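Known limitations

Files may contain more than one protein. Parsers should not assume a single record per file. Below, a two-record file is shown to illustrate correct handling: read the sequence, read the token line, then continue until end of file.
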Amino acid sequence: MAARAIFVMDASVTLAWAFEDETTPYTERILDRLTQGRAVVPAIWPLEVGNALVVAERRGRLKEADTVRFLNLLRQLPIVVEAEATERVFSEVVRLAREHHLSTYDASYLDLAMRLGVPLATQDENLRRIAARCGVKVVQAGTP
């Protein structure tokens, strides 16, 4: 039996699933990958996703019931939240953010992919370019 594929997934991919008008073939492909593998996300991911959903409620894009339903669906997916030590955030993540002009949020996804040696799934073009420059494989739409 082949090992299940592991990849790091950022909030840009996850949140597209919550909004019909933001779903793309790429985000659907990443969702399909979760049937054969699992995603690993940094500790910031639940806060990013939760905040975006609450903001969407405030703006009238989602109802509270939509958010509850979406979060329940996310809980069923093979997504593992990786705890990050404060020392690592204050050293490596901040260094990556500074060096590559990233937010510390984006740097946490890049750092996790680098540490685990796994591909990164993101819709953020800047993060894709930087990941490639750092030697991190980026999950492409057609990548199995």
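...continuing to the second record:
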Amino acid sequence: MSFAERLYMLRTGKGISQKELADTLGVAQSSINYWEKGQRDPSISIVEKIADYFGISVDEMIGWNPRKTVGQNLATMKIQTLAAHLEGDEFTEEELEEIRKFAEFIKSKRKDND
């Protein structure tokens, strides 16, 4: 299930409108619409807020399942390499962690489409 499908399912399952969810998250209603249609993706910080709102983990929200991940060690090494390249750009540890999470999120979308 894609992030877009999961968001729609969670929102409608809870019986709330796009506007209500948007107000709760502090975003425009059009953002919810774009996300549910798979036309845009939220930032990792918004994904965290959505997951918190629905009482699930970010992993569940983006559909990441470590048991299904092939080559997880290689993926982790690639993320660490990416972070190492970015460290010279004076990112904080929190920003580097957000970059790592976002990279995993992007990869999970690719797997959903396969």
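Parsers that stop after the first record will miss the second one. For reference, the second record is described as follows. Residues 93-113 form the longest helix (21 residues).
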